[in-house]
Amino acid sequence: MTTCSEFGSASERAAAEAFQLDSTPLLSRSSVALSDQQRDDPEHAATLWSGGRVLPVDQRGRAPLESSGRLAWHRPDEFSDHGGHAVLLGTHDGVAHWGVRVRPRDSGSDWQGLRAVGEWLGDVEAALLTTAVGLLAWHDRARYCALCGAGTERIRSGWARRCTGCGHEEYPRTDPSMICLVHDGADHVLLARQVVWPAERFSVLAGFVEMGESLEGCVSREVHEEVGVPVSDIRYLGSQPWPFPRSLMMGFSAVADPREPLRPAPGEIAEAHWVSREHVRAALGHEEPVDGLWLPPGISIAHRMLRGWADAGPL
């Protein structure tokens, strides 16, 4: 990989820092409505169930697809009591959409997850599958009360759980995390490879927000912990739900001095490099490495960040 030896000038930094996401992150294209009335009124929920569509989702977050590549929705009468098993994902064009946890069935359909097909689904189906994967994963992990240990039951059409012992209510959790594109203010970006990733797979840096920490503080801490360099000019870019199992990725950019030595975190980061804009442009959109660089797929906000940065520079 190429490396850079000169920190960008003030004019170069100003131009580089102006970049934005190249487009809305693919899992942020929500166009599905859901109101508290729909969640809280059991009679209304029952009506929505009887006239709705149901998406089965397995433990690996996969849903069945039709031969056309669209999600394979099912009739409500193919499933049992909606109150105990289904979650209301939202309504679109007057039709309620529900999600149900199932084991894959031999129905002739192909079962795929968001990583595989999220990029190719339309706005509505991408939003519905994203919600289903995250919400059903939360239910799998919230079966017992955190206060007294008794079992919990679903309420509010799947948007909360109530303890059968003490009555305590729990609501779906979202874990905030930051993802940051660190650049030199000119034409190089800092990319790293986690130890669990295959060779040549690189991305921008990311990490979870800790208790009592601001988002900007998380950016500074995580970048320093992962590669050992300080950053400045932290700027918000956008966000994307990432239900693996329940994260919200908040994207930032920041500037670092490429003359600072890189110190990859032992056991976490296998290697880190400054990579040229030209090399990033060449590698984007390819499903295999290009000259030793394999970048995140289009479904991720990391891809949108890298493409936005790559497109912002001179041709």
TrEMBL record:
<dbReference type="GO" id="GO:0006742">
    <property type="term" value="P:NADP+ catabolic process"/>
</dbReference>
<dbReference type="InterPro" id="IPR000086">
    <property type="entry name" value="NUDIX_hydrolase_dom"/>
</dbReference>
<protein>
    <recommendedName>
        <fullName>NAD(+) diphosphatase</fullName>
        <ecNumber>3.6.1.22</ecNumber>
    </recommendedName>
</protein>
<dbReference type="InterPro" id="IPR020084">
    <property type="entry name" value="NUDIX_hydrolase_CS"/>
</dbReference>
<keyword id="KW-0378">Hydrolase</keyword>
<keyword id="KW-0520">NAD</keyword>
<keyword id="KW-0460">Magnesium</keyword>
<dbReference type="GO" id="GO:0046872">
    <property type="term" value="F:metal ion binding"/>
</dbReference>
<keyword id="KW-0479">Metal-binding</keyword>
<dbReference type="InterPro" id="IPR049734">
    <property type="entry name" value="NudC-like_C"/>
</dbReference>
<dbReference type="GO" id="GO:0035529">
    <property type="term" value="F:NADH pyrophosphatase activity"/>
</dbReference>
<dbReference type="InterPro" id="IPR015375">
    <property type="entry name" value="NADH_PPase-like_N"/>
</dbReference>
<dbReference type="Pfam" id="PF09296">
    <property type="entry name" value="NUDIX-like"/>
</dbReference>
<dbReference type="InterPro" id="IPR015376">
    <property type="entry name" value="Znr_NADH_PPase"/>
</dbReference>
<dbReference type="GO" id="GO:0019677">
    <property type="term" value="P:NAD+ catabolic process"/>
</dbReference>
<comment type="similarity">
    <text>Belongs to the Nudix hydrolase family. NudC subfamily.</text>
</comment>
<dbReference type="Pfam" id="PF09297">
    <property type="entry name" value="Zn_ribbon_NUD"/>
</dbReference>
<dbReference type="GO" id="GO:0005829">
    <property type="term" value="C:cytosol"/>
</dbReference>
<dbReference type="InterPro" id="IPR050241">
    <property type="entry name" value="NAD-cap_RNA_hydrolase_NudC"/>
</dbReference>
<feature type="domain" description="Nudix hydrolase">
    <location>
        <begin position="172"/>
        <end position="297"/>
    </location>
</feature>
<dbReference type="InterPro" id="IPR015797">
    <property type="entry name" value="NUDIX_hydrolase-like_dom_sf"/>
</dbReference>
<dbReference type="Pfam" id="PF00293">
    <property type="entry name" value="NUDIX"/>
</dbReference>
